[in-house]
Amino acid sequence: MDGKRVRSSVDLELQGGSKPELQKRSTSTILTPGMMIFTCFMFLPLMVLLLGANRNPSFEWLLGVEITAGKGSKYGSSASFSEPPNDKLLGGLLSAGFDEASCLSRYHSALYRKQSNHTPSPYLVSRLRRYEALHRRCGPNTELYQKAIEQLKSNRSTEPTECNYVVWVPSDGLGNRIITIVSAFLYAVLTDKVLLVHLSDDLRDLFCEPFPGTSWILPSDFPVKNLESLFLNAPWRFGDVLGKKLDATDGSFPSYLYLHLTHDQRFSDHMFFCEKAQPLLQRTPWLLLKSNQYFVPALFRTSHYEKELSLLFQNKSVVFHHLGRYLLHPANPVWGYITRYYDAYLGNAKEMVGLQIRIFEAAPISSDQMIAQILNCSIHERLLPEINLTEPAHPITQRTQPKAVLLTTLYSGYFEKLRNMYYQYATTTGEVIAVYQPSHEEQQHTEQQNHNKKALMEMYLLSCSDALITSGYSTFGYVAQALGGLRPWILLRPDKGSSACLRATSMEPCFHSPQGYQCIAERSGSKEAVGHVRECEDVPGGLKLVD
């Protein structure tokens, strides 16, 4: 993991080609005097060109930045890690029954992230093994799957089936898709249903199969067509069906229900979380689920699942941390991007600070304002050092490892300002700060597979950070923080107060749009369960899990 970093400020773009693999451990190369002279002459023109191109960059924008000094709290390690070093099975989360070469990230991710101090409960481990057995028995290309498909084609459900399914339908960007896959999987585990994912072309070849001996990909000959636009005219929409008197004996009971759990769902759709809806949902053999929400907090406030959830997760703030690391393994080509970039640029840093910037149209902010907010947050919280605008660098007594800043954003301007600032001026602590940005797409292109590969790469790289700063409301940041087991510092929207950032209460993502799920006139979970669900720091009215 401690690969030797190539010190470069060049923005690495992923072109699908391969960069030579770097050694996992730093090695020393002995150069003869002749070789050293030759090397200097070879690189001298390039150095002149680079220095000339970046000579005297303008820092007028810095003069307008008022840094709020503060003692802050040195973050150090985000946890006191208790797992065995390089535990490739992640405390029993992962099954050992895979061909390692077919998905290198599954067992190798432990080499790149900090060891987690959140050990999965024995009950969660046993339920995952039980789910895997169910998926092998009922998954695609099995006799029971074909039987369920025939019943689906009949457009009616006349008797209980041995295998029942949740079909996940993608919506919005990659971050939204990932948090909803995790939500749908937890629901499948709670209800003994089989999760199948409808992969559009832009999602193919991003992830490995998560379950041994079977597939989670919905076959292309699935009889219900146009799944992504089904919400426009779904004949069996859950919110419409709920409350109707359905009788399985006369053929009026549907063979599937469409669940629309997005930010713009109807109130009746959100009755999905209510007690009275559970028999209907349990009875229906096929649930077609489209969502862009992390609806896990609502499951914790549904009394129907309370006991099972308490057994699965003794600590409530680790749901995504465990299930995300269990489910989501980058496919080998994407894992190659991740490891080559990490080994080349980040692996030899003494510390790594992740910085994720997302600007939303609903809350515009200028680049100078955003830079000022980032500096106020990172310096006040002692994540990054101040720069000295008037004095030269500290005397160097010995060479030290740099602190790396991994910047992920669609835009290039932030990278240039941060890099040039720490290049042009010494820090007050004497630290060397190296800033890296893997890509800058300028616009989001979720419909493009290569764009999604870059996004997945950056989420995983951010999850390897020692400390993380994220943009409020961003599902991209949610995925990174939860995979890495990190409580981030959240950059608040400019209209949300004077503080530049605040520390998240947990690593869990936020359920942005929980309106209507409270289930009027029903008990909505015990006081203990409800006490683990709090309002999000970054989304007014949003809900998240805490301990």
From TrEMBL:
GO terms for molecular function: galactoside 2-alpha-L-fucosyltransferase activity. GO terms for biological process: cell wall biogenesis; cell wall organization; xyloglucan biosynthetic process. Residues 1-10 have a biased composition (Basic and acidic residues). This is Fucosyltransferase. Belongs to the glycosyltransferase 37 family. It comes from the Eukaryota. It is found in: Golgi apparatus, Golgi stack membrane. The chain crosses the membrane at residues 30-53. GO terms for cellular component: Golgi cisterna membrane. May be involved in cell wall biosynthesis. Its EC number is 2.4.1.-. Keywords: Cell wall biogenesis/degradation, Glycoprotein, Glycosyltransferase, Golgi apparatus, Membrane, Transferase, Transmembrane, Transmembrane helix. Residues 1-25 are annotated as: Disordered. It is a single-pass type II membrane protein.
